[in-house]
Amino acid sequence: MGRLLHIRPVAHEPHGGRARNEEDSAYYARLRNERAEFFCRTYIDPETGATRSADGKRTVDTQTSYVLPLVFDIAAGDLRKKVAERLANTPTRANKADNGTACPPYSLMTGFIGP
Fold it and tell me: 52 has which bridge partners?
């Protein structure tokens, strides 16, 4: 999540009136795109839209992990649709917490609540 929070200010720099000139705007747009592409390559499975750990070995699969790339406009095109579909399915299905505890449908699975 920290990487996403670092992309958001950069994404808004060209639009926020803080860029001094076109060169600055182009720099911030390029930086935002590079970071967004890195995030998607690293944390989102391109085939399924599932969010994953940085090493790719563990699916994260929390509601927050899907909401943030959507609201920060990080996932685009077909990948965005896949992430949105994953998010839409999270509330109504059974889930499993990081500690292995089974959670019934409609559980809040943010990744922040704890045990």
Answer: 59
CA-CA-CA-CA dihedral for 110, 76, 55, 27, to nearest 10: -110
pLDDT digits (tens, 9 = 90+) for 30-86: 888 898 999 999 999 999 999 998 898 888 888 888 998 999 899 999 999 999 999
User: What's the distance, CA 61 to chain centroid?
Assistant: 11
| pLDDT tens digit sequence for 79-88 | 999 999 999 9
Give strand pairing partners of 102.
96
Q: 102 φ, ψ to 5°?
A: -75, 135
Entry pTM? 0.76
- CA gap 26, 22 in Å, rounded: 6
